[in-house]
Structure formats: structure tokens, C-alpha cells
Write a structure and sequence with these properties.
Rossmann fold, 288 residues, 12 helices
Length: 288
């Protein structure tokens, strides 16, 4: 079925700057199709990004968009959502942007159950800023700051956000484009904090350093080594080693931050009104 992507992009910003073989375009197309499914007006959608390859997305999409500072996309998005709760606020970010300098914003937005949808492009490297290792770079892999191999264990993004309190968490890869689209659509439809990890490839920076410069090799790896969550739960730790576990890991609907904040504001307003009527006046609140 033909799909008109041009209605959601800014043609004047093309050609894009992503390298040949980069998987970011697949993620963006899945995001566009998912937004289209929601039937939202473009004026009601905000896409916020930080710094990095994936963060160029905000410049290409024809919504309300904000290209912010490194690691601060979720903080900016939080402010937008609180100021304009009716808007659908989506954050596009990378593994370095979201997990390192932006790590605190990520976990506390999940803890608050802030009404945001985060699409986290995980290419396992700081690709735009020099090829440094990120918190998602697998142990043993090469980076400009790990010329003999990464010695630190990498974050499991799903477990991190689940533990922080997210309402919806899923993972897929750019090889599984239709599945990725479906997960993003579900995330957009959920109240509270939702995150979809999109495992993608960087053949230019990550690939060359790790002897996989061919993007097809990455896609073959994503196909061969991806395991559905249900199957992975029956595997041993050794069998899961090196696998990409895909699926929906958290789907626990609960009241988001915006609704809780609204209810608290109403209670506070009632308390102030009651005190004023009783003759205590606004000054009585000081020290209470």
C-alpha cells in the first residue's frame, strides 16, 4: 500500500545528512506511519530532540519541533507537556544523548510517569561526536575512546526504564520495521511515560571500528540474533548471550503525571478557597 510520507516531512531540509546504510531513516518512517495511524493533526504533535545523529529527525519532520541541547530533550519535552497538556509530545533521542548526559532526565521522567513518548535510537555509539563509546556500547566493542575494547558493561535500556517506573516499554530493530511501527503506535496511545528502543546500525563509525562496515551485515545480525521475549524467557543466560530480546516488556496503564498534577492543583485550589471563606485569608497559609 502506497504511503505519502511527504505530508509529514519538510522537503526543503533534504537530502538528509545521514550516512549511506544508516538505519535512522527506517526508524523515522516507522514513526511517521505510527503517528498517521493515530489520526492526529500535525499542529497537535511536538517532536523534541537533543544532539546526535538521531536528533536530526526534528529538522526533517513537519510538526511542531524543537532541537535542543545535548541530553536535555526530555527536560524540554517535560516543560512543553506541562505548559500545553493537550499536545502529543514525542522525544527522539540516541543512546548517548538519553543514557549518559541525559540519564537523570530519562529515569526521573519514567519515575514521574511523565506523559511523553520516547523513541530511543540505539546504534551503540556516539556517532556524530567522534565515535566515543556510549552507555549502550557492548562490552568488548571498539570505540575512539575504547581502542582496545569497551571494558564496562552496557545498560539494558528496557530494564533501566522498567525499573524507573515507565508505563510502556518495548524493543525492536530496524530489520523488523513493521513490528517497530506497531510498538511505536502502542506507545503513542498510552498515557504516562512510554519508551520504544529502536536497535539500529551505524556502519560508518561503529561498523568500521568493529569490522562490520557493511549495513547488510547488521541487518542479517538483527534478523538472526533477535529473539522474542516469550522465547527468551525460556532460555538460559548463556543462550541469551549476544541476543537482541525484542517485544513489549511493560504495558502497565496507570495515571500519568499530568492528570495527577491536575488533581493536586484542584485540591490545592479548594483548600485555599476554604481557608479564605473561613476568614483565615491567604496569610494563614504561611507556615502551614
Amino acid at each position: 500500500m502506497a504511503f505519502d510520507y511527504e505530508q509529514y516531512i519538510r522537503p526543503s531540509t533534504f537530502p538528509h545528512i545521514w550516512c549511506p546504510g544508516c538505519g535512522n531513516g527506517i526508524v523515522v518512517k516507522a514513526l511517521i506511519r505510527a503517528i498517521h495511524k493515530m489520526g492526529w493533526s500535525k499542529d497537535d504533535v511536538v517532536v523534541v530532540s537533543g544532539i546526535g545523529c538521531s536528533s536530526r529527525t526534528s529538522g526533517y519532520l513537519d510538526f511542531n519541533t524543537l532541537h535542543t541541547t545535548h541530553g536535555r530533550a526530555i527536560a524540554f519535552a517535560t516543560g512543553i507537556k506541562i505548559a500545553k497538556p493537550r499536545l502529543h509530545v514525542i522525544v527522539v533521542t540516541g543512546d548517548g544523548d538519553a543514557l549518559a548526559i541525559g540519564g537523570n532526565h530519562l529515569i526521573h521522567a519514567a519515575r514521574r510517569n511523565m506523559d511523553l513518548t520516547v523513541i530511543l535510537f540505539n546504534n551503540s555509539i556516539y556517532a556524530m561526536t567522534g565515535g566515543q563509546y556510549s552507555p549502550a556500547t557492548p562490552e568488548g566493542k571498539m570505540a575512539s575512546t575504547a581502542p582496545y575494547g569497551q571494558v564496562e558493561p552496557n545498560f539494558d535500556i528496557v530494564r533501566l526504564t522498567e525499573g524507573a517506573g515507565a508505563s510502556f516499554v518495548a524493543r525492536s530493530t530496524v530489520y523488523h520495521a513493521a513490528q517497530l511501527e506497531g510498538y511505536i503506535a502502542k506507545a503513542l496511545d498510552r498515557e504516562g511515560f512510554s519508551l520504544v528502543e529502536a536497535v539500529t546500525q551505524c556502519p560508518t563509525v561503529y561498523g568500521r571500528r568493529n569490522r562490520t562496515p557493511n549495513p547488510v551485515t547488521f541487518l542479517e545480525h538483527f534478523k538472526k540474533d533477535s529473539v522474542p521475549r516469550e522465547k527468551a524467557e525460556k532460555m538460559t543466560d548463556e543462550e541469551r548471550e549476544g541476543k537482541i530480546i525484542t517485544g513489549i516488556f511493560v504495558d502497565h496503564p496507570r495515571i500519568g503525571f499530568i492528570e495527577r498534577y491536575r488533581k493536586m492543583s484542584e485540591r490545592a485550589s479548594e483548600v485555599r478557597k476554604r481557608r479564605y471563606i473561613q476568614g483565615s485569608g491567604p496569610k494563614s497559609e504561611v507556615g502551614n
